[in-house]
């Protein structure tokens, strides 16, 4: 199967190590963004994955595409826009009780200004079997929301399976529409949902009595929440909910649950300490899930693959999950000792 993801990729500027912004006069420059991160994961697992976006028609845009190709992601469908810019996000990595911080500078980016008709989605999706999008792209601007709707409709018309990570970002929804106004409509064209409890509440307006602030998870309530989503959206075949217990910036509990209308299942729980970089952790889960749903018959096993993949991502700096298939499979089997492999 061929996969395609659609959304925004940004220049990522990170303070070195665990430093505060400009504690030293340098920033580490890489690239990253939800849908691009998923494409990199899929390509890293040996799948054929392309990324569709709009980039500035300049050296920065070319460097971004070159970075994607470095990880075997297809870039032939990218549209280059003259006199435009690449969005930026600044990252300060937290430690202990100091949280990580993200500052966005992505207004008026090439993809945020792109309008319906910029992409010929019917042609772009020809020959693909799966399309992935997130709730971040519709949050960028009214035109990118319209583009996102155009994309999912075209994908369904072309017979693709559509997955969506709801990915609510409160700092992005500022062009006059509430997240649930847009995402509740877009979700009508989605087959597989990835979310956490806040995403479901803020993006879909569906609530359940779910509380994780204490560090305790009531799985029965998550099953009720997932059932509510499936009842509301009969088109959705599978919903997965990631379960992050955040005890500090360095220590998280990590697991997920899946509801495929036949069964509800919670994965193994990982205790992650000494986290290197949690940005992109959700995207690595999405990438692992999309891969596993197409390579494992058992949805429980598919969920375990996705959770293991995203657990490993927390040990890797940068947006991209560079864990190999073999590493993920070993962790799934319980080999999480971290011993040197010789």
UniProtKB/TrEMBL annotation:
Family: Belongs to the carbohydrate kinase PfkB family.
Residue span, Carbohydrate kinase PfkB domain: 7-313
InterPro entries noted in UniProt: Carb_kinase_PfkB-like (IPR052700), PfkB_dom (IPR011611), Ribokinase-like (IPR029056)
Keyword Kinase: yes
PANTHER family membership: 2-DEHYDRO-3-DEOXYGLUCONOKINASE_2-DEHYDRO-3-DEOXYGALACTONOKINASE, SUGAR KINASE
Upper classification of the organism: Bacteria, Bacillati, Bacillota, Bacilli, Lactobacillales
Organism, scientific name: Trichococcus flocculiformis
Protein name per its UniProtKB record: Sugar kinase
Keyword Transferase: yes
A GO MF label: kinase activity
UniProt keyword terms in alphabetical order: Kinase, Transferase
């Amino acid at each position: 199967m061929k996969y395609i993801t659609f959304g925004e990729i940004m220049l990522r500027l990170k303070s070195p190590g665990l430093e505060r912004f400009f504690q030293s006069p340098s920033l580490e420059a890489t690239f990253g963004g939800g849908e691009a991160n998923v494409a990199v994961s899929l390509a890293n697992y040996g799948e054929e994955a392309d990324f569709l976006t709009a980039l500035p028609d300049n050296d920065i845009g070319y460097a971004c595409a070159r970075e994607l190709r470095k990880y075997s992601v297809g870039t032939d469908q990218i549209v280059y826009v003259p006199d435009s810019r690449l969005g930026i996000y600044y990252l300060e990595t937290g430690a202990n009780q100091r949280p990580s911080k993200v500052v966005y500078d992505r207004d008026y980016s090439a993809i945020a200004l792109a309008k319906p008709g910029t992409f010929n989605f019917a042609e772009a999706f020809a020959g693909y079997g799966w399309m992935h999008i997130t709730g971040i792209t519709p949050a960028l601007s009214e035109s990118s929301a319209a583009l996102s709707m155009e994309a999912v409709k075209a994908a369904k018309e072309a017979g693709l399976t559509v997955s969506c990570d709801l990915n609510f970002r409160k700092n992005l929804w500022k062009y006059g529409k509430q997240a649930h106004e847009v995402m509740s409509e877009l979700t009508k064209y989605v087959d597989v949902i990835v979310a956490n409890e806040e995403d479901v509440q803020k993006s879909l307006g569906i609530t359940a009595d779910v509380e994780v602030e204490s560090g305790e998870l009531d799985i029965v309530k998550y099953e009720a929440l997932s059932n509510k989503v499936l009842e509301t959206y009969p088109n959705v075949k599978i919903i997965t909910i990631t379960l992050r217990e955040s005890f500090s910036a360095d220590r998280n509990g990590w697991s997920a649950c899946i509801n495929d209308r036949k069964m509800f299942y919670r994965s193994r729980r990982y205790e992650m300490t000494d986290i290197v970089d949690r940005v992109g952790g959700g995207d690595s889960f999405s990438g692992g899930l999309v891969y596993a749903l197409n390579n494992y018959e058992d949805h429980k096993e598919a969920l375990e693959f996705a959770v293991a993949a995203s657990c490993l991502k927390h040990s890797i700096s940068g947006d991209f999950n560079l864990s190999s298939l073999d590493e993920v499979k070993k962790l799934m089997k319980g080999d999480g000792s971290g011993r040197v492999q010789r």
